[in-house]
Structures are given as structure tokens and as C-alpha cells.
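quick one, 149 residues, struct below
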Amino acid sequence: MSLFGAKPTQPCNPDRILIVADEAPIRKLFQMILASALPDLNADQARNGIEAVRLFNEQHHGVIMMDLRMPEMDGLQAFFAIQKACQSQTITMPTVIFFTGYVPADEVNRFVVDNAYHRLIKKPVRSEDVIGAVMSRLSILKQQSAAVK
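---
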């Protein structure tokens, strides 16, 4: 407990990434790209936002790569559900890398554009973009972890 009675925030797991896309080939491609560049990173996969929220609640991934458009629960809805779960469980919000082939909604642009914590990548996505985005987010998580210690 802190001085004022609030629980300290628990960090997410910087060694885990969650790849969320409704298309299996995209999930597999991102996992292969990341495994080749970051072999020590553990990657989980989800087919939609509902699975993403469930898996995040189990593993507390440090980085989430998430498609914006998916059936059942889209990326933005999943983002807000994960944000709510983090607040209620006093867990640090993971960094989220959205990807899309569509023009993102204004709401996405409001919290992603010029935000060092979250990011938006437009399709088609290059391997270098995926690796660079994940590596920069992992660097942010390591800085946060070092600041807490």
C-alpha cells in the first residue's frame, strides 16, 4: 500500500507479447517475424478482441499487437476492455501497437498519434516496421521497470 492507501501498480510482463488478428496467416507471419528478431520473447495469439482480453487477463502481456477491425470485438473495444481490467486490477496498461488497412477512427488517432506509448501501423506492414515498433515498446517497458526499482 502507498502512503495514501492506493495499491501500487503491478507491471505487465515485458517478456510476453500478444498478437491479435482475425486472420491466421497474419498472426503466424507476425509471430515468425518476431521469433526471428526476438527469440526470447514469448508470443501468444488471439483471433479477436474477446480472446485478447481473456489472454491478457491470464498473462499480462507487456506488448499487444492488435488489428483494429475484427469480428465479435474489434481492437478498439478490446483496448478499452483491457484498460478497464488494468485499472481494476492495478496493472500497468500494456503498450498497444494497432495495425490496420483502413483509415482509423478519429478516436484511435486521438490516443495513438504522437503517443510514444501506443502506436498505429498501416497495412501493408513491413517486417522492419513490426520489429522496430515492438523493440521500441519493449524499451519503454524496460525504462518503466527500471524507474520503479
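The longest strand covers residues 13-20.
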